[in-house]
Sequence to fold (206 residues):
Amino acid sequence: MKFNKQLLYSALISLLLISCSDDPVAPPAKTAAQFTADGWKKFEAGEYQDAISDFNDAVNLDVNANEARSGQGWCYMMLDNFNTAIASLNLIPINAERTDSEAALAFMHNANADYQLSLDATDFILTEDPDWQFAHNNAIDIDDIYLLRAHNFISLGEFANALTAFENLDAEFSADVTTENGRNQLLAAIEALNPGISELQSKLKH
Fold:
């Protein structure tokens, strides 16, 4: 009888072990970094609302997830929700890596006709990374920033500075901006390259 009890206990333990081994193992919880990476992948695919969801999850897990806040800003900008985009980007500390964020701010401030704020953002980029290229679409780079600067300056009536900025794009361009004709030539050259948010959005959607 004692022998039978031992067999019974052994059988029960074996069944318990088999049962436990068949239980599905829960996947590990995603980290803020993983949510951020997934969000940028969706951004690059043009899935802006889904990307925002991932970026929100990242920020909820880590209030210092600055890359996720940058992602929020870029997504909301692409959805033309500038107020929310700017609010998200302004939460990123000034001492953090924020050249991509400043680029988005530069475009939105330009679109809002806040030309000096846009210039301030481009100043930051040129100081921190004069060879800047957007990490999530290499069609957007420092040339877009110089074009934006030229448009900002000419909109503020700073024609000499506008010419200097534009010469970074076309070193052979020449116009006497002390004359009305020269200023019109420069304005036409800038506008021919379609500066601003619409061109940026077009590049990102292709």
